[in-house]
Amino acid sequence: FDSLEGPTNIARAVDENQRIIFMNRACQDLLGLAPDDAMGQDCFTVCRSLTARGKVQCRKQCTAIASARTGVSPAPSLMRLRRPQGPEQWLMCSFVLLPQRGGERPS
Questions:
Q1: What distance in Å separates the CA atoms of residue 14 and residue 41, rounded to the nearest whole number?
Q2: Under DSSP, is residue 35 helix (H, G, I), strand (E, B) or coil?
Q3: pLDDT tens digits for range 12-69
Q4: Which residue in 22, 26, 65, 88 is deepest, having the highest Cβ count within 10 Å?
């Protein structure tokens, strides 16, 4: 995950169970979280985003994780991030599938 530490990248990684396994400093700052507050937590409880139409986007079994489980990289999407403090933030979210340890993609 070293390449995701740049100051302009807001990056996080989740495992196949939707638990946060990585969150870079920019993402922590945006969400107002310390690393220990997010690691191992369900991504949908930490990143409570909405679609452009106001529907809940981050949820258990979201479309992004459903696509990833089939081996298909989810399409980029515009999301409205609800932060605990400060105004909502619009983000363009891109997804990248990474192999698990051992070289296999999540099943």
A1: 9
A2: helix
A3: 888 888 999 888 888 888 888 887 888 999 999 888 888 888 899 889 998 888 888 8
A4: 65
CB 100 within 8 A of CB 68: no
Unique residue bearing structure tokens 């999540």: 106
Alpha-carbon span 44 to 62, nearest angstrom: 9
Is the pLDDT higher at 8 or at 55?
55
pLDDT of residue 42: 93
Q: Residue 57 CB: number of other CB atoms within 10 A?
A: 22
**C-alpha distances in Å from residue 44, one per residue of 8, 53, 73:** 23, 18, 18
- Name, in order, each residue with C-beta under 8 angstroms of 89's C-beta and a sequence gap of 6 or more: 30, 80, 81, 83
Residue 50 contacts residue 59 (beta carbons within 8 Å):
no
Amino acid identity, residue 29? D
DSSP letter at 56 equals: B
